[in-house]
Write a structure and sequence with these properties.
This protein is mostly helical. The chain has helices spanning about 1-85, 90-110.
Length: about 110
């Protein structure tokens, strides 16, 4: 007769063990949910910072492009127009003249000593 009592006690112990494991699983699930939410918040904050940096960078690049365009349409354009009116130099004679000047300078240095 004690067999049914032993079986009942084992079943009760198994039930209590199952309940304890279920409560532990619920706590683990809750902790995992909190960690997941914290990670999601961190990702959202990082994405917001990246978007702010992207917008600031785009603004700076756009300003640089506008400045470059104004410079090219203004000063550089005037320089190109003005320089196109100048005569084209004869580079061969220019190089020869520089070469003669350089030789003369070297000669003067060596003769001073």
């Amino acid at each position: 007769m004690p067999i049914p009592i032993i079986i009942g006690a084992v079943a009760a112990a198994a039930g209590l063990y199952g309940i304890a494991k279920g409560v532990g699983g619920a706590k683990d699930h809750s902790n995992a949910k909190d960690i997941n939410q914290s990670a999601k918040n961190s990702v959202d904050e990082t994405c917001a910072l990246i978007n702010q940096s992207r917008e600031a960078t785009n603004s700076v690049i756009e300003d640089y492009g506008q400045r470059k365009l104004r410079a090219f349409n203004g000063i550089i354009s005037e320089f190109i127009d003005t320089s196109s009116c100048l005569p084209v130099p004869n580079w061969k004679s220019f190089k020869q003249e520089i070469s003669l000047r350089r030789r003369w300078q070297i000669y003067n240095r060596t003769t001073r000593c």
